[in-house]
Amino acid sequence: MKLTVFFLFILIFRIPLQGQQQVWTLEQCIEAARKNNLQVKQSKLAEELASENLLNAKGGFLPSVNMFAQTNLNFGQTIDPFTNTFATDEVRSDAYGVSGSWNLFNGLQNYNRYKSSQYEALAARYDADKA
């Protein structure tokens, strides 16, 4: 009985393995190697990172705008000086604001950061093409 189960087990699991075999051509092997190459993937990620850094450097020229809203609620008891009794007070205050800033000149730091990011993006693109 054990021998029959063993042979049956081998037959069942051997059949799908035969169907999995595929003969690859040289072109398919080269294409699979290019697609799964770690250096190619890393160079593409480096290119994406450089383009994001370039976008961030462009954002350095934009103004910044900040908004805020605040509300306070204070309540408690005080002694009324005229009647000498406790009075319950509630004070609510709201504050809203908008502020903005725009750096007009900072020693050409933003411009130099932008140009550096441009060259880094170009170098990453060339590295990706080379890989």
Architecture overview:
- The chain is α+β, with helices and mostly antiparallel strands.
- The protein is 56% helix and 24% strand.
- The protein has a two-stranded antiparallel ribbon.
- A hairpin with a 6-residue loop joins strand 1 and strand 2.
- Helix 3 packs antiparallel against helix 4.
- The protein is flat and about 105 Å long.
Outline the secondary-structure elements.
Blueprint: H1 2-20, H2 26-35, H3 38-59, E1 64-79, E2 86-101, H4 109-130
**CA-atom Rg in angstroms:** 35 Å
Strand content: 15-25%
Number of discrete helical segments = 4
Task: Please state the structural category.
Answer: alpha+beta
Quick structural gist:
This protein has 131 residues and is α+β, with helices and mostly antiparallel strands.
Based on the model shown, name its key terms.
single chain; 131 residues; alpha+beta; two-stranded antiparallel ribbon; 24% strand
